[in-house]
Amino acid sequence: MPRETAAEARARDERYRVRTKDHVARYLASDGADGYDDNSLKAPTLLLTTVGRRSGQPYTTPLNFAAHEETYLLIGSYAGSDTDPKWYLNLVANPAVTVQIRGECFAATARTADPDEKDRLWPVMANRMPFYDEYQRATDRDIPLIVLERSDAEISQGTGVEVGLNCQLS
User: Fold this and answer.
1) Where are the alpha helices (DSSP H) in 31-107?
2) Which of 30, 34, 138, 148 counts the most CB atoms within 10 A of its CB?
């Protein structure tokens, strides 16, 4: 049974869009100096650009992350919502993404961690950002853990993924 009404979900989505737009603008304008640790826990934030699964348009979202070994970890919590975030649905449909961490931009491939991997990696995120455990308790949805691996693909104009980034485009 959903925990929020359709009207509550629409209001949440609108608040999220406004907050995200402001955060992305500040992050881009400062190469992350304003926005990299934009939360009470000072958890690091990256910008993830995905291609819309229906629109084909690029979407940039600020997300908390953890660097782990040769990868970057994300959690698709949507603050404990009963639905997956749109950015997650987009990367499932097209796992080629662009990442900006402070002033560094790179292409990456995203994938959802399998259950064993998730069991091993979830504590990496939750130990740094305990609110993820709270979010998981708030929903019956299995919140996905996403692994980003750097890609050899070049970020070039015309791919759609580079839009909005301060990257040096080839």
Assistant:
1) 86-93
2) 148
Task: List phi, psi (to 5°) of 4.
Answer: -135, 150
Does 160 score more than 50 pLDDT?
no
CB atoms within 10 A of CB 41: 11
Measured between alpha carbons, how far is 56 from 62 in angstroms, rounded to an integer? 19
| Cα dihedral 118→99→60→79 (10° resolution) | 30
Pairing of strands 71-75, 66-68: antiparallel
3-state secondary structure of 68: strand
Q: How confident is the model at residue 156 (pLDDT cuts 50, 70, 90)?
A: low
And the tokens for 70? 């040769």
Q: Indicate left, alpha or beta for 31 from its phi (over 0: left) and psi (-120 to 50: alpha).
A: left
Residue-wise pLDDT for 106-123, tens only, equals 999 999 999 999 999 999
Q: What share of the chain is helix, strand, coil (3-state, %, to 5)?
A: 35, 25, 40
Prediction pTM value: 0.84
Sheet holding 66-68, edge to edge: 58-64, 45-51, 96-101, 104-112, 145-150, 71-75, 66-68
